[in-house]
Amino acid sequence: MDTKTIYDFMVVANELEFEELSEKLENHLIESKASWLKTHFTFVYHSIFKNNKFQNLKKFCNDIIVKNPSIIFESAEFTSLHESALISILKRDDLQMKESEIWDYLIKWGTARNPTLPKKLEEWSDENFMTLKTTLQQCLPFIRYFHISNLDVMFKIKPYKKILDKQIWNDLKQHFILPDHPVESIILPPRLVLKQELPERVNEAFSVIINEEHASMISSWIDNQQTSYSLTNNPYEFQLILRGSKDGFAPRTFWDICDGHANTIVVTKVEGTDEIIGGFNPLAWDKTKTEWMKTNKSFIFSFKDGNLQNPILSRVKKENEALWYALDKDKYGPRFGFDAFVMKSDESNFTQDKKNWCDNFREIYEKSIRTTKDRFSIIDYEVFKVVKKSI
């Protein structure tokens, strides 16, 4: 019986209230299948917080997260994290993050839960702040406000002071001036910094958007294979060049980081769906050029709902217009064809203003890779350099 089947049995046993069997399977996974749990970490973590069971698995996962917070905080699925999961992390004294960074991610999580909030904070009404406060009310008590630097309080906390209890904000202001003077608010202890050992290395996925199966299929398309490579015979390695959630979502950032890199894959995750959209460029990205780029080897693709069933592959037809290196690189990132797959933002952030699109009106590529021409924002995107594996 494979590990995924054992995991599914555990979930079913829990649903049927076979508590003893469920707990035995849970402990078996932790004791004997830890490597599988780490490899499939995001899937496991999101699924176990759908109910109040699996306490041992939750602790197992949180013990990993506190040492390696990026596994969750930098994942594309962070904003869909269950509230109880987020609270369980915030409660940990040993979470290895700066408190101001934890605050930033908490605001990101809360605003993502309320997509109707204005994008610009200066446009927020009192009602908007109340909406965010309501969303975060169970999480806010676990922020260690009095262990955030004065500078970060002014520039990160103060803009959102309306979501805080008045007593907390008044005490923070007093703490600025009289740090040794007692306050009425409860001051949580600072988080413990682990110094004795390096954090345990987790088998982190190479991507927060695609998995090894996606990579094998994309590799087979590069080589014009009729069937997909298997996980064991994929001849290529995908080396990460850029990740939006780590490096930023400005179009100019794309050109600055990817300049000079050839044989690259761009993959994006569409906001509001699990759809993956991407493209392959065999040519070098060049931030000094403003022209059509000619190649007969580029292609674009999509995975509906992110799964491997029925992907759409579209190869270039008009090789003289395969890619357009735009004049305005502060607004345009990668552009396959005139409109087949375009990343654009007037706000200098691909996640903000729904200006990315896939149309293929001019039929530069074989077919459209989306069933809709609606413009969209993204949750995250990555650029990989495709390199032959060494023998």
UniProtKB/TrEMBL annotation:
It comes from the Eukaryota. Residues 208-387 form the TLDc domain. InterPro entries: BACK, TLDc_dom. This is TLDc domain-containing protein.
